[in-house]
């Protein structure tokens, strides 16, 4: 057990509820900043050294909180990083508790895990618990859209860290933490055609939708499940009315790969589809990889074994898994910093209407993260 007193799952859930009911869609910078203000005030009150990074490009701001640790802050810190933004628009889901499950927007991905990080850091400071190394808490506002304004900050903070802990949700029925993730990419395909009357002048039209349909089947054909490569074309748009040959169409393309080389290969193959088409339409393709793969290394496995031993002493098993979804841990792992992911709440339904946590597991899982923060260091 950590030296820090974490509290019960009931008390953790009571405070977490406020975070969940304070909804924070990625698209609502003001809502995210308001919750960030609450977090910052709590941490400042117990002595954390804060840095606020203002939002830009329509996204909320970010927060860095530091605990000096022993030796006046000397030594490489442990970085714990989470995000406050969620995929849910206001009012789509509501908070409720049914038995062992607590439901709500973003409660699993990843309000519970980010709350773990905040709560552990706050209580370490409040209770004046000695840690082996300094601690840096980083909370960001744009992870759900690929971390466009926070990646540089994440990499800055990770560059001097001895380890990175990512309290994204624990995964699967076995409630695993994560030692490897696929790399992720996002591309946008747009097609320009020529409008015409679909009855009187069909031959003068150039259907952007037909071209897009052909491209989608080609991109779908690049899937290789055995190699860990997937593509998904969605959302898809095009056309105006049934009697008008569509002059515009497009889609977004989600990419998941197991290696950097495969990501480069797949992006090049999709980009090669751009340009003038034989039917007279024109294709434009933008985007590429936005998160490198998180690769399981001996250093990551050593970090995992420390976490598993702590969990065992607390009273639960902590298996590991490789996960298809990306996180900010992809960035830090690619820098060669030992990174352990999936240390957040247990539950299910990320990005789904039934998103929930198993709230009775809040205290033991938060305690595991807290003990890692207390004991990791050079």
From TrEMBL:
This is M20 family metallopeptidase. It comes from the Bacteria. The keyword DNA repair does not apply. SUPFAM superfamilies: Bacterial exopeptidase dimerisation domain (SSF55031), Zn-dependent exopeptidases (SSF53187). Residues 179-275 form the Peptidase M20 dimerisation domain. Its cofactor is Zn(2+). It comes from Teichococcus vastitatis. InterPro entries: ArgE/DapE_CS, Bact_exopeptidase_dim_dom, Pept_M20_glutamate_carboxypep, Peptidase_M20, Peptidase_M20_dimer, Peptidase_M20A. Keywords: Hydrolase, Metal-binding, Zinc.
